[in-house]
Amino acid sequence: MIVKEVKALILLITMMVIVVAAGCGSSNTAQQSAAKSAKEVVEFKYPELVYFDYIYLADELGYFKDANVRPKYVGKMGAGQVIPSLVNGSIDVATRHTPVVIAAIASGADIKIFTSGSSSTKQWPHMKYFVRAGSDIKSIKDFNGKTIGLNSFGACAEYVTKKYLQENGGDPSSINFKTAPDDQHEMALAEGHTDIAIIHPPASGRASNDPKFKMLFSDYDIDQGLSSMCPYSVNGKFLKEHPEAVKELTEILIKTAKWSNAHPQEAKDIMAKRFNMKADQVELYNFSEDQLVPEAGVQYWIDRLVEVNKLTPGQVKLEQIYTNEYNPNYRK
C-alpha cells in the first residue's frame, strides 16, 4: 500500500515538473519569438520633401505600424540631392524621376527602380507650367529667352520642357533655368525672379488656386503621360540585404495606391495636414494600382537620354534599371 502511494506521489510530482517546464518553455519561446519579431523590423532611411509621396501617406494611414518594414526619416533635402544620397547610402529608398535614376546607373551606381510610383493623367498631371496673370507668355512658342523655375536639373522638368520647345521651333539653349524646391516657386514667380514656374503636387494645387498665376499647360498636355513615371528606387546594398523588406514595402505602396485612388479627398486632407496647406489647394498624383514598372516608360527615357547625348546607344540595358520581381502582381 505504502509502495503504491509512493509511486503515485512520484508520478504526480513528475507530471507537475513536466507541466511547469512546458509552461516555462512556452513562455521562453514566446519571449524569444517576440524578441525575434522586434529584431526583424527593417528601417529604411528616407528623406522628407514637400512632395505628394505615398510613403508619407502610408505612414499617416498606419500601414507601417504592424509591418516588418518602416521608414526612418533623415530630414529634408533638395530634390537634386535625393539620387546622390541614394547612391551613397545616406538614404535607402527614394522617389525621383526616371531619367535621373537611369543617368546614375549609367555612371555605375548600384540602385534600381522597383515600383512605378506615379504617372500623369489629365486630372492629376505630374507637373504644371505657370506664369503670372497678365503675362505675355501664352504658349511654348513664347519660352525663348525666358527664366524658368524648376526643382532640379536632369529630370522631367528640364528634359520635357526642352523637347517640347524644340519641337515647336524654339531654342532650348536660350532658356535660363533656376532651381528651387517646389514650394518656393510661387514666390519667385510672383516677385519676378522667374517668368515661368514648373510645379509638382501638392504645391501645384496652391498655385492653381492663386489668382496671381495662370496655368499654361501640364506635362499631360505635352505627351499624354508618356514621360511622367516617377518611380521608387532602392539602394543596391539595401536590396541585397533586405529583399523581403522591399517586397513588403512594394505591397504597402500597392495598398496605399488603391486607397488613395478610392479616397482622393481624404488623401488630400492628410497631405494638407502634413504640409500645413489648405486641403482645397492640395493636388494629388495618380498612382497605378498594380505598381508594375512599364517597360515603355523606361525605354522612353533611355531613348531621350541617347537623343540628348547623355547616354550612348546600348550603354544601359532595361534589366539594369528596373525590376518587377518584388511585386506580387508580376507574372513572368
From TrEMBL:
The keyword Signal applies. One of its GO terms (cellular component) is periplasmic space. Coiled coil: none annotated. It is found in: Periplasm. InterPro entries: SsuA/THI5. One of its GO terms (biological process) is alkanesulfonate transmembrane transport. Residues 54-267 form the SsuA/THI5-like domain. Keywords: Signal. Pfam families: NMT1. SUPFAM superfamilies: Periplasmic binding protein-like II. Its main location: periplasm. PANTHER family: ALIPHATIC SULFONATES-BINDING PROTEIN-RELATED (PTHR30024), TAURINE-BINDING PERIPLASMIC PROTEIN (PTHR30024:SF47). This is ABC-type nitrate/sulfonate/bicarbonate transport system, substrate-binding protein.
